[in-house]
Amino acid sequence: MSESETIANPPANAPLPPRKKPGPSWSLIIIGVAVMLGIGWYFFHRQAGAKTDATAARGGNFPVPVVTGHARQKDVPIYLDGLGTVQAFNTVTIHTRVDGELVKVAFTEGQDVKTGDSLAQIDPAPYQAALDQVVAKKAQDAAQLANARADLQRYADLLKTDGTTQQTYDTQKALVDQLDATVNADQAAIDAAKVNLAYTNIRSPIDGRTGIRQVDQGNIVHASDAGGLVVLTQLKPISIVFTLPETALSKLQASQDPDGTAFTVLAVARDNTNVLATGQLAVIDNQIDSTTGTLKLKATFANENLRLWPGQFVNVRLLLETREDSVVVPASVVQRGPDGAFAFVVSGSQTNQVAKMRPIKVSQIDNGEALISDGLQPGEVVVVDGQYKLQDGSKIRPAEPTGGSGGARKNWQGKNPGTNQVNKP
User: Fold this and answer.
1) Backbone angles phi, psi at 248, to 5 degrees
2) Domain extents for the chain?
3) What are the CA-CA distances from residue 423 to residues 76, 137, 150 (Å)?
4) Most exposed residue of 100, 151, 240, 343, measured as fewest CB within 10 angstroms of its CB?
């Protein structure tokens, strides 16, 4: 066998040569890199396109959809707001003025009573007996006085004829004066006994409503008892005591009418939505609380519907003045910037509308409306919603309001309401 045959055909039991491991495929690597580059290119150009669209929108290349409305003209009330507490117009704790057994309770808890109505009855028997006693005493002393006066007249006749001495006459006259004073004292005792007897019938001193009964029938009550029988509160009319910042004093003085007409005051529920009652300012306290810097005021309300209750906390709105024919816009129109408040005012034709930034002065924002003192005229079209997409000079197109505030904002849309439209408060 030749050497070449030996190499080409090795023996059956000869070991096989080791296999080489396959290397990485360059084609797969190239494909992976291409995929990654494609993904990166896609996202880069997508983000750049979004920025381009936003820049185009802000720059006015594309109209920005916004909600618009008109500045209106109306009478606007100016209020001072404070927190108040309802107080009964009068509060009386009913006490007995004489001691004795409470034999009758003539009211029910929560009952409305009038002045002079009977509330309770103290046992009158001891006081009736005392009255009868002093009446009898007066009758006795009056009889003695009558007899003494008769004797005095006799002594006077005898003195004229020297039938008696001057001393005897003077002594009898002194006795008459003494008995006369005794009868007068008896009459005073009768009057006092009648007063005590009248006190056994306890009557209401005011028109009001009874509270919870403090003493039950059958108990012995005393004039010195601290608790009393019941508490009466007058609910019609009723008062509210509230506070305002001390800076409000100058505004009140400046707005006070020359004829002294009282300010109108509204009592509003704590949710600031329901007006409970309308009243008049009764008094401004004569001093400012230096510890809190507040001024205390008191208003009176008729409270015919009893919606105000003693001890109730309410929000109070004092009508300072009413500015007639003022310009108002929705509160969302007002924007804030480094230079102060501004609004986007719409100008241009119907097909080419542009939003311009205009500085404005806001007097107050109340109940979703902003009172504009300078910067806007009645009837001007303003941007109500969508300002965050706008710059000065951006093109716009009107859009329908969306979201929960759409209904409220929709009221400001439509045709120019005109400058003669006034909504009375």
Assistant:
1) -75, -20
2) 63-71+326-410, 80-89+233-323, 93-116+208-232, 124-199
3) 8, 79, 91
4) 151
Q: What is the pLDDT of residues 99-148, one digit of tens each?
A: 999 999 999 999 999 999 999 999 999 999 999 999 999 999 999 999 99
User: In angstroms, rounded to a whole number, what is the distance separating the alpha carbons of residues 223 and 276?
Assistant: 40
- Top-level class of domain 80-89+233-323: mainly beta
Query: At residue 67, what is the residue type?
Result: V
Of 103, 86, 3, give the one whose Cα is nearest residue 303. Answer: 86
Q: Choose among 104, 65, 121, 14: nearest CA to 387.
A: 65
Angstrom distance (rounded) from CA 226 to CA 99: 13
User: In what order do the strands lie in the sheet containing 91-94?
Assistant: 91-94, 230-233, 208-210, 112-113
In CATH, what is the architecture of 124-199?
Orthogonal Bundle (1.10)
Question: What's domain 63-71+326-410's architecture?
Answer: Beta Barrel (2.40)
pTM, full prediction: 0.66
